[in-house]
C-alpha cells in the first residue's frame, strides 16, 4: 500500500534545495512515506535590495510559513539562523537535526588565508556581524582590509572572487558543505576570530502546531544538544533585542571531559561594524535539560553584555 506523499515546502535556491533534499530523504526514511518537494518563491529571493535595507527579520522564512499556515505544505526546512526569534503559536519547531560546522569561512583568490590578505584587500560581506569581527581582528593583527557589502546567493558571491571583483568573500561553512563546494574554502575562521550567527549551521524543521502525528515522527530527527545550543544562542539574540541583521555573534558548545559531557558554554559578541568597540563575553553552566533552562542561559549572558554597554553598539545598520 502506498501512502500519500508528505509535502515539503522549499525555496528554490541551490542551498535550500540541497538542505530540503537531504531532510526529505531522512524524513522518508523515518516515516516510510515518500516526500515531495514543493517550490515556493520568497520575497528574499526576488528582491534586489540589500537584506539589511529590506529590514526586519525572516524575509526568507515568511513565504514558507504562509504556505504551512495555509496547509499547502506539510512541513518546511529553514536555515535556523534565518528564523526570527519569536515562534508563531500555530507552528511547531518539530526538529533541530545535528548541527553542521558552525564556522564562517573565507573563499579567497590564490588560496589566500585571512592573515595573507594584502593591504586594501576587498572582502565581500554584507553582514554587520562579520564586518564587526573581521574589522576588529584586522585592527588587532595589523591587517588592512576593506569589508564591502555583497548580495546574492553563494554561487554569485564566490563568482565575485573568480572575476576579481573581490579578493575574498565570507560565507558559512555549512552552506558550502551542503551544496558540495566546501573544497573551495581557503580559510576556516576560528570561532575565536569570528563568532558565527546564532543558529548558524543548524536547520529547523517546522510544521503546523496541531499536527501531533507529524511532530512526533519529525521529532526523530531532533538532536537535543543542537536544540539546546541554538535555543541558548537565539535567547541571547532575543534578549539583546537584536534582529538577524544585527552585529551579534553567538555560539554554544559542549565542554566534555573525555566522553562525558560536562557543561555548556555560551559565547556572545556584539560590536560596531568598524570593529572599534566590542563586547565579548562567555558563560558556562550545566547542560540545559529543558527549553526554559536553555533560554535562561542566553538571557543571563545577554544581561551581562547589556551591563557592559552592548545596547549602544547595536544601533548601526549595514550599508
Ligand atoms: N545568510 C544566508 C544564509 N542562511 C543560511 C546560510 C547557510 C549556513 C547555515 O545554514 O547556517 C546562509 C549563507 C551564508 O551565510 O553563507
From TrEMBL:
Identify the cofactor(s). dipyrromethane
Keywords from the named record: Porphyrin biosynthesis, Transferase
SUPFAM superfamilies in the record? Periplasmic binding protein-like II, Porphobilinogen deaminase (hydroxymethylbilane synthase), C-terminal domain
| Limits of the Porphobilinogen deaminase N-terminal domain | 6-214
| Annotated ranges, domain Porphobilinogen deaminase C-terminal | 229-306
State the Gene Ontology terms under molecular function: hydroxymethylbilane synthase activity
Q: Keyword Transferase: yes or no?
A: yes
Q: Name one Pfam family in it.
A: Porphobil_deamC
> What does the note under cofactor report?
Binds 1 dipyrromethane group covalently.
Where in the sequence is S-(dipyrrolylmethanemethyl)cysteine found? 244
- Catalysed transformations (reactions): 4 porphobilinogen + H2O = hydroxymethylbilane + 4 NH4(+)
Give the enzyme's EC designation: 2.5.1.61
Q: What job does this protein perform?
A: Tetrapolymerization of the monopyrrole PBG into the hydroxymethylbilane pre-uroporphyrinogen in several discrete steps.
Quote additional remarks: The porphobilinogen subunits are added to the dipyrromethane group.
Task: Provide the family line.
Answer: Belongs to the HMBS family.
Listed HAMAP family: Porphobil_deam
On assembly, the entry states: Monomer.
- Name by which UniProt lists this protein: Porphobilinogen deaminase
**Organism whose genome encodes this protein:** Streptomyces cinereospinus
Query: Upper taxonomic classification of the species?
Result: Bacteria, Bacillati, Actinomycetota, Actinomycetes, Kitasatosporales
Amino acid at each position: 500500500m502506498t501512502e500519500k506523499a508528505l509535502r515539503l515546502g522549499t525555496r528554490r535556491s541551490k542551498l535550500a534545495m540541497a538542505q530540503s533534499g537531504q531532510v526529505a530523504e531522512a524524513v522518508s526514511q523515518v516515516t516510510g512515506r515518500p516526500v515531495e518537494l514543493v517550490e515556493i518563491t520568497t520575497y528574499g529571493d526576488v528582491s534586489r535590495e540589500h537584506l539589511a535595507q529590506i529590514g526586519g527579520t525572516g524575509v526568507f522564512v515568511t513565504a514558507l510559513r504562509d504556505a504551512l499556515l495555509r496547509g499547502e505544505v506539510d512541513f518546511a526546512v529553514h536555515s535556523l539562523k534565518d528564523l526570527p526569534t519569536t515562534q508563531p503559536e500555530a507552528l511547531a519547531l518539530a526538529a533541530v537535526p545535528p548541527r553542521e560546522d558552525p564556522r564562517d569561512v573565507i573563499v579567497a583568490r590564490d588560496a589566500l588565508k585571512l592573515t595573507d590578505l594584502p593591504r586594501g584587500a576587498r572582502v565581500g560581506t554584507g553582514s554587520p556581524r562579520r564586518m564587526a569581527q573581521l574589522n576588529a581582528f584586522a585592527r588587532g593583527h595589523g591587517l588592512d582590509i576593506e569589508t564591502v557589502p555583497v548580495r546574492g546567493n553563494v554561487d554569485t558571491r564566490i563568482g565575485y572572487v573568480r572575476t576579481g571583483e573581490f579578493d575574498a568573500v565570507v560565507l558559512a561553512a555549512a552552506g558550502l558543505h551542503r551544496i558540495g563546494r566546501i573544497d573551495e574554502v581557503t580559510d576556516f575562521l576560528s570561532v575565536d576570530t569570528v563568532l558565527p550567527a546564532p543558529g548558524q549551521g543548524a536547520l529547523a524543521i517546522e510544521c503546523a502546531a496541531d499536527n501531533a502525528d507529524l511532530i512526533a515522527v519529525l521529532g526523530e530527527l531532533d538532536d537535543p544538544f543542537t536544540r539546546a545550543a541554538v535555543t541558548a544562542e537565539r535567547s541571547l539574540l532575543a534578549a539583546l533585542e537584536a534582529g538577524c541583521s544585527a552585529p551579534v555573534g553567538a555560539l554554544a558548545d559542549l565542554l566534555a571531559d573525555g566522553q562525558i559531557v560536562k557543561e555548556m558554554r555560551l559565547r556572545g559578541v556584539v560590536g560596531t561594524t568598524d570593529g572599534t568597540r566590542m563586547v565579548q563575553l562567555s558563560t558556562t553552566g550545566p547542560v540545559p535539560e529543558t527549553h526554559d533552562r536553555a533560554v535562561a542561559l542566553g538571557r543571563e549572558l545577554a544581561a551581562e553584555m547589556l551591563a557592559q554597554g552592548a545596547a549602544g553598539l547595536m544601533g548601526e545598520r549595514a550599508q
